[in-house]
């Protein structure tokens, strides 16, 4: 197969993840490996931002790259961090030990054989999710065509991550809603149990149930379940509730 065919096949394979269940780490590891296989770089790595905004290493094409990127995070300097912080590509840079934009990073990279660097943000509109780091053991800049392919890989990976996060958030919301609905059913059952056994109305039963949960630092649903299965302290039913703010 020609190189162009390999690039197209890689893009298609990555696009397939947009309509299938997939693992983000596996996706980004594949992205790093494809960059090395197809773009003439020596190593690649991907960092992603946490919800709090701090970067973390997610994927790398080699152990040397993994250790270097961990050093980059520790030193808080390097091409990947710049691409993430600015949201803009970091063009080809020849590394110089102890000088330039990233003196500590450059020294560490040169020590393991890397001579130049390039980084691309994983960015969708105004949202920057992370960055792609591309290192080479030579000082020859990447061909413009290869840079365009790298950007396509990065953009497609960004879309995949955004979709994954949206699906995860939707699932979490559905789980929270389902749990809330289930809890409400349990509480309604518990209100009926207490109302019948103590001969109070449902509003008073709920007030006692809630006050007991608050006064004993317990979850309302747990107290309701205890009332239903008969393990709740009977004093929770018969004593008037102590004042508890709503």
Structure description:
With about 250 residues, the protein is α+β, with helices and mostly antiparallel strands. Helices cover about 60% and strands about 15% of the residues. It has a 5-stranded antiparallel β-sheet with strand order 2-1-5-4-3, sandwiched between helices. A hairpin with a 5-residue loop joins strand 1 and strand 2. Helix 1 runs antiparallel to helix 2 and helix 6 packs across helix 8. The longest helix is centred in the C-terminal third of the chain and has 55 residues. It is elongated, with a radius of gyration of 28 Å. The termini are far apart.
Distance between the termini: 69 Å
Average pLDDT works out at: 83
The SSE order reads HHEEHHEHEEHHHH
* Count of β-strands: 5
Give Rg in angstroms: 28 Å
Distinct helical segment count: 9
**Approximately how much beta-strand content do the residues carry?**
15-25%
In what order do the strands lie side by side in the largest sheet? 2-1-5-4-3
| C-alpha geometry | elongated
Low-confidence region ranges: 241-246
Largest sheet: 5 strands, antiparallel
**Structural class by sheet pairing and helices:** alpha+beta
The helicity comes to 55-70%
């Amino acid at each position: 197969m020609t190189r162009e065919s390999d690039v197209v096949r890689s893009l298609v394979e990555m696009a397939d993840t947009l309509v299938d269940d997939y693992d983000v780490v596996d996706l980004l590891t594949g992205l790093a490996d494809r960059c090395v296989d197809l773009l003439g770089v020596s190593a690649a790595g991907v960092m992603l931002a946490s919800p709090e905004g701090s970067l973390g290493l997610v994927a790398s094409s080699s152990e040397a790259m993994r250790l270097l990127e961990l050093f980059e995070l520790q030193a808080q300097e390097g091409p990947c961090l710049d691409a993430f912080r600015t949201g803009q590509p970091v063009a080809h840079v020849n590394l110089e030990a102890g000088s330039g934009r990233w003196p500590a990073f450059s020294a560490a990279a040169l020590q393991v054989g890397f001579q130049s660097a390039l980084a691309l943000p994983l960015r969708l509109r105004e949202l920057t999710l992370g960055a792609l780091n591309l290192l080479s053991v030579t000082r020859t800049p990447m061909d413009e065509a290869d840079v365009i392919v790298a950007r396509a890989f990065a953009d497609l990976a960004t879309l995949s991550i955004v979709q994954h996060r949206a699906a995860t958030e939707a699932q979490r919301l559905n789980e929270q809603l389902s749990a809330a609905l289930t809890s409400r059913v349990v509480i309604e059952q518990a209100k009926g149990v207490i109302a019948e056994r103590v001969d109070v109305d449902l509003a008073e039963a709920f007030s006692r149930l809630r006050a007991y949960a608050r006064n004993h630092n317990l979850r309302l649903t747990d107290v309701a379940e205890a009332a239903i299965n008969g393990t709740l302290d009977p004093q929770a039913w018969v004593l008037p509730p102590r004042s508890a703010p709503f």
